[in-house]
Amino acid sequence: MPEFKYVAKNSAGKDMIGRLTANTKKDALEILARQQLFPISLEDSNKGEIDLSKWFTRKPPDKLVATFLQQLADLLENGVPVLTAFQVLAKQETNPVLKNVINDIHDQIADGQGIDTAFASHANIFNDLTISIVRAGAEGAFLEDSLKRTAGFMERQAELKGKVIGAMIYPSILCTVGVIVVSVLLIFFVPKFEPMFQSLVDSGKQLPWMTVLLLAFRDTCSKYGLYILGGLFAIFIWLRIQLKTKSGRKFIDRWKLKLPLLGPVVLNTAVSRFCRILGTLLENGVPIIHALEISSHSTGNYLLADAVEKSAESVSAGEPLSKPLADSNIFPSRVMAMISIAEESNTLENVLLNIAGSIEKELTKKLDILVRMLEPLMLLVLAGAVFYIILALLLPIFQMTEAV
Q1: Of 255, 39, 40, 277, which is closest to residue 156 (Cα–Cα)?
Q2: Strand 3-9 vs strand 38-44: parallel, antiparallel, or unpaired?
Q3: Among candidate residues 44, 38, 187, the one with its CA nearest the CA of residue 107
Q4: Other beta carbons within 10 Å of 182
């Protein structure tokens, strides 16, 4: 139970300082009133303290948050009071982090806070999209509908993310196995043949070029392996630092868009995410300028986000949305054509959601094709590396046999 510290005056006008425990701030005020104390200030005694448990807790999965929003919408739609709905959901929630969040939102609403303010106090759990839609739904008296749409959006995003991760599991396993197999061959098998190769060189024989390259590669790894790993680690740290700077993000995101096969996938993913978020926000009554600001931070690509931010400035000046987006030369032409027509017909939110749906379908097909191409390619690379090592070890033995 939370503990509150208070400063109050008694009936004689004397200042009283103390602490009390209560479920909510409202209950604490009632306790003070029963004690004939008139509060001057009342604060949570834990406020401002560092909660180390946050460092060891993981954010609930988006799919779990989406389920919570959907269940909350169902309860409210069926006439269950807001506070009762949060109590019911808190009792049945098994994730400890989300359970504490639900309880805290309940307590804040009981203290008189708005539901959007309570959600906003947990920005690490609910993103800007969710908070803005909840705020628009609360102000426009369509909270249940907005919660359902937000839950549907989060479920689709989680599903797409799960497909990408699932598609990369098998190629990742192949890559790991390949590195292990090649490392074992270089560390344990190649050194056993080196004395024989050295005797051939001492006797005036010339080793095949494949064997020379293999031995040179192994010697380089054994002598400078730690330096190579250190250099790779330094590059990784440098990239992480660059990702936190504006110029670094812009450079890396521009480079990602120019990748041969993955570039179009990265671009379509960012465009789909932008269209889905902007369409969902507009559909839930969020003003277009604020919706553009939120969607620009959620695209996952700095170049695209920069173009959206500039378009927000143009829209605030009275220009149509399609013009500044088209001038950025980032969005596909067919997407810009559909957005332009949608603005003229005043169906922008519906068209944006349709664009996102069609791009997501195309992305699923392209990812499936890329994974199907990647699996045999990695198998060929792995088989080729093993075959090269074995052949480089056996060629000198064949030469010795022929000489004999």
Answers
A1: 277
A2: antiparallel
A3: 44
A4: 15
Could you tell me if 151 and 141 are in contact, meaning their C-beta atoms sit under 8 angstroms apart?
Answer: no
* 125 contacts 115 by C-beta, under 8 angstroms: no
Q: Which two tokens stand for residue 36?
A: 């004939």
Per-residue pLDDT of the chain (404 residues; tens, 9 = 90+): 567 778 887 777 777 788 877 766 777 777 877 887 877 777 766 554 444 444 445 678 888 888 999 999 999 888 888 899 999 999 988 888 889 889 988 888 888 888 888 888 887 888 777 787 787 777 766 788 878 878 887 887 777 777 777 777 877 888 888 888 888 888 888 888 888 888 877 777 788 888 889 888 888 888 888 898 899 999 989 888 877 777 777 888 888 888 887 788 888 888 888 888 888 778 877 788 888 887 777 777 788 888 888 888 888 887 888 888 888 888 888 888 888 888 888 888 888 889 888 888 888 788 778 777 877 888 888 889 889 988 888 888 877 766 55
DSSP for 331-390 reads S-HHHHHHHHHHHHHT-HHHHHHHHHHHHHHHHHHHHHHHHHHHHHHHHHHHHHHHHHHH
* Domain residue ranges of the chain, discontinuous segments joined by +: 3-49, 59-155, 169-404
At the topology level, CATH places domain 169-404 in: Receptor-associated Protein (1.20.81)
Owner of token pair 């996102």? 356
Report residue 144 as tokens: 């249940």
Topology alike, domains 59-155 and 169-404: yes
Predicted TM-score (pTM) of this structure = 0.62
Nearest to 207 by CA among 401, 399, 387, 340: 399
Are 172 and 378 within 8 A, CB to CB?
Answer: no
What one-letter code names the amino acid at 224?
Answer: Y
Cα dihedral across residues 214, 216, 221, 223: positive or negative: positive
SS3 of 20, please? strand
Take residue 286 and report the two structure tokens written for it: 């969020």
249 token code pair: 């993000």
Residue 208 is which amino acid? P
123 class by beta-carbon count within 10 Å (0-12 exposed, 13-18 middle, 19+ buried)? exposed
How many of the other CB atoms lie within 10 Å of CB of 37? 19
Q: Tell me 259's DSSP state.
A: -
As assigned by CATH, the class of the 59-155 domain is mainly alpha
Q: Is the dihedral of CA 166, 167, 168, 172 positive or negative?
A: positive
- Helix, strand counts (H, E) of the chain: 16, 3
